[in-house]
Amino acid sequence: MWKKIIKSYDYSLIAAFILLCLFGLMMVYSASSVTAVQRYEVASDYFYNKQKIHIMIASFFFFIAAAFPYKAYKNSKFLFIMIAGIVGLLCILAFFGTISNNARSWIRLGGFNLQPSEFAKLVIIIYMSAIYAKKQNYINSFNKGVIPPIILLVFLCMLIAAEPDFGTAFIIFVIGCTIIISSGMKFKSMWKLVLLGMMAALILSPLILLKKDQIFTEEKMSRITGYLEPFEYQEGDGYHLVNSYLAIGSGGVIGRGLGQGIQKLGYLPEPHTDFIMAVIAEELGVLGVLIVIGGLSFIVLKGIYTSIKCSDPFGSMMAVGISSMIAIQSLINLGGVTGLIPITGVTLPFISYGGSSLILLSVSLGVLVNISMFVKYENLYKK
């Protein structure tokens, strides 16, 4: 039996995970070495060494998640503990959270910063997939089948938006929407949800206007002006985007060479996190960009394929949720770096520096690998 299970694993997904993490580690060192010395006054390999630790921790949890049967996540007690835990952590942030980039979204533990809102992404994927899988017989009953999971989705998004972290709140909301679309719910029920959302927006609009100075802060509005007219405000709000353009444009087809980038030398504000793709484009050219986009696209398409092949609604919806999470986060990061959308501060999956995001994505991908294994095992040995 164990030999059959081992043969059923999708080793191409595992290889994609390992290669993206190693490629990201290489680029974190290249992108952060000067910033570490000039801006943070630490050793040039400071962020590289911390990212190595992040990858080791993330890899441990990835293989645990890949080996752990995904169907166990549907257990009611596990769901309750998971929801209570993440809600508790998000509430604790209101009093004890560490402020970074004007958001109280971090908890400091043993020298490491933990961002609970990152883990809320996987929590909402597991919870909504489990609940809608259990409600398949009455999935179109608006009161019993549709509304209950959405209440938690909206509540979590509101807690995260209050930090304020609108980027993560938006990602979680869209992930929830993709699970709803894939749940088997009829379009009639979905249209009811859209109308309900529009009514809620109208009801909340006076509160938004009342709190507009707190919601639409000067920093947030600067991202909009920098996005719309980057060259007009290149010494101010458009500075980040203009330097991202310069990095991407100067890289050309073959790039300047690994470690030879110029924009990371104090011009790009966060070369090892938000703007790491700009550094990749400058140093490795089109080939480097294709490696990253190709690897991420492969994972997303594999996830969608797994969802289609999975006969279990719970596994199918989880595969959709995990794939959409990676795709949405990648698109938002790449859109910000290339000026297609305003800069949001969302990191590039598996590539950017950061512990919370990498661990969350690794666990999620491990779950996807486990779902893929069960699908292949059932197709090969249970026919």
Automatic annotation (TrEMBL):
Record-listed E.C. numbers: 2.4.99.28
InterPro entries recorded: Cell_cycle_FtsW-rel_CS, FtsW/RodA
Chief place where the protein resides: membrane
Transmembrane spans: 52-71, 78-99, 119-134, 146-162, 168-186, 193-210, 275-301, 313-332, 352-375
Subcellular location: Membrane
Keyword Ion transport among record annotations: no
UniProt KW keywords: Cell shape, Glycosyltransferase, Membrane, Peptidoglycan synthesis, Transferase, Transmembrane, Transmembrane helix
Keyword presence, Membrane: yes
Reaction it catalyzes: [GlcNAc-(1->4)-Mur2Ac(oyl-L-Ala-gamma-D-Glu-L-Lys-D-Ala-D-Ala)](n)-di-trans,octa-cis-undecaprenyl diphosphate + beta-D-GlcNAc-(1->4)-Mur2Ac(oyl-L-Ala-gamma-D-Glu-L-Lys-D-Ala-D-Ala)-di-trans,octa-cis-undecaprenyl diphosphate = [GlcNAc-(1->4)-Mur2Ac(oyl-L-Ala-gamma-D-Glu-L-Lys-D-Ala-D-Ala)](n+1)-di-trans,octa-cis-undecaprenyl diphosphate + di-trans,octa-cis-undecaprenyl diphosphate + H(+)
Domain of life: Bacteria
Pfam families in the record: FTSW_RODA_SPOVE
Membrane topology of this protein: Multi-pass membrane protein
Enzyme class: transferase
Family (UniProt): Belongs to the SEDS family. FtsW subfamily.
Functional note: Peptidoglycan polymerase that is essential for cell division.
PANTHER family on file: CELL CYCLE PROTEIN (PTHR30474), PEPTIDOGLYCAN GLYCOSYLTRANSFERASE FTSW-RELATED (PTHR30474:SF2)
Name assigned to this protein: Probable peptidoglycan glycosyltransferase FtsW
